[in-house]
Amino acid sequence: MFVRAYPAGKPLVLPTGPYLLLPFVADGELLVHHNRHGASLLRGDSAPDNALFIGTLDGLPCLAYFQVPAADDDAVEPEGLRRLGLRALFGHLADEETTVAGYASQLIRWQKNARFCPSCGGPTHNDDGWNQKCAACGFNHYPPATPAVLILVHDGAGNILLGQKEGWGKRYSILAGFVEPGESLEDCCRRETIEEVQITIGECVYDGSQPWPFPHQLMVGFICRYESGQIVPDPTELSHAAWFHHTSLPELPPSYALSRQLIDRWIAKQAERRNATLL
Ligand SMILES: [Zn+2]
C-alpha cells in the first residue's frame, strides 16, 4: 500500500533507507529496471541531495528526483536500466508502482514549474504540504489535478457509442472531455456529448476514476443512457463516430486505461443480462 508523505517542517529529514528510487532523467522519463519480464522501480540505500520524499510503498520510502541537472542528457542509461516515458511504463510496472511513478512525475514537474508566482512573478517557497507560496504577494497554490470525464453512452439495447480521432489508427474509444469551471461532472458529460456528436443523454452513473499523469488529469468515468438525436461528429474533435454492438466491437484502448475498463465492465453486464434473459 502507498502512504503519502508531505514536506511539513524544515529542514526536511529523510527517513533511512533502503529506498524505492524514482530518478527522472528528462521531463516525464523515469529510470527503471527493465528486462524481458517487465519493468520495476529501482531500489537503493543512498538518498540524493535533491530527493523528494513522497511516501512509502509497502513500508519502503519512495524518493523522487532529477538524476541529472541537464534534462536533455541522453547518456544516462546504465546497464540493466532503461529510461522510459510514463506511457511506456503503463502496463509494464506493477499497478501500485505505476501509481507512484505517476504521482512522482507530477510532483517533480510541480517543483520545476511552480518556482515563481503566477500572479506577480516573485519567487515562491514551500511551507505547507506541497504548496508553493509567494513571499511578495502571498499567492498560494498547490499541485493541480484537472478533472476530465470519460463518457460511455449506450442505448439500452446492447449498443455503445464510440468515436475515433485523427492519428488513432483503427482504434475507437468512448467520448471524453475536460470539465469546465463551474460545471458538475454530470453536466460535463451532457455538454461534451452534445458538442462532440449532437446526442442528448439522460441518466449518468459514476463508474470509477483513474489518475492520468499526462500531465495531471483525474479521469472520471460515467455510464450514460442515450436519450435522443442522430450521431453527427464534430470534425474538429472526431474523425468518425458510430454505434457498435457489444458483440462486434472495433479495436479498443489498452486495458490499463479507464476508458477500456469501463467498456469491459459494460460488456460484462450485457453478457450477464443476456444470460439472465435466456434462463
Ligand atoms: Zn506573488
Structural class: alpha+beta
CATH topology of the largest domain: Nucleoside Triphosphate Pyrophosphohydrolase
Q: What small molecules does the structure contain?
A: zinc ion
Low-pLDDT stretches: none
CATH class of the largest domain: Alpha Beta
Number of domains: 3
Strand-and-helix sequence, N→C?
A: EEEEEEEEHHEEEEEEHEEEH
| Cα end-to-end separation | 42 Å
Summarize the main sheet.
8 strands, mixed
The tally of strands reads 17
Structural notes for this entry:
By secondary structure, this protein is an alpha+beta fold. It has 3 domains: 2-113, no CATH class; 114-143, no CATH class; 146-278, Alpha-Beta Complex (Nucleoside Triphosphate Pyrophosphohydrolase). 20% of the residues lie in helices and 35% in strands. It is built from 4 helices and 17 strands. The chain has helices at residues 86-89, 95-113, 185-197, 258-278, and strands at 2-4, 19-26, 29-35, 38-40, 42-44, 52-57, 60-66, 81-85, 124-125, 132-134, 140-141, 146-154, 159-164, 175-178, 200-212, 217-228, 240-245. The strands form 4 sheets. Strands 1, 2, 3, 4, 5, 6, 7 and 8 form an 8-stranded mixed β-sheet that branches. The chain is globular. The two termini are 42 Å apart. It binds zinc ion. Zinc ion binds at residues 117, 119-120, 122, 134, 136-137, 139.
Features:
single chain, alpha+beta, eight-stranded mixed beta sheet, four-stranded mixed beta sheet, 3 domains, 279 residues, binds zinc ion, 4 helices
The gist of it:
20% of the residues lie in helices and 35% in strands. The chain has 279 residues and is α+β, with helices and mostly antiparallel strands. Strands 1, 2, 3, 4, 5, 6, 7 and 8 form an eight-stranded mixed beta sheet that branches.
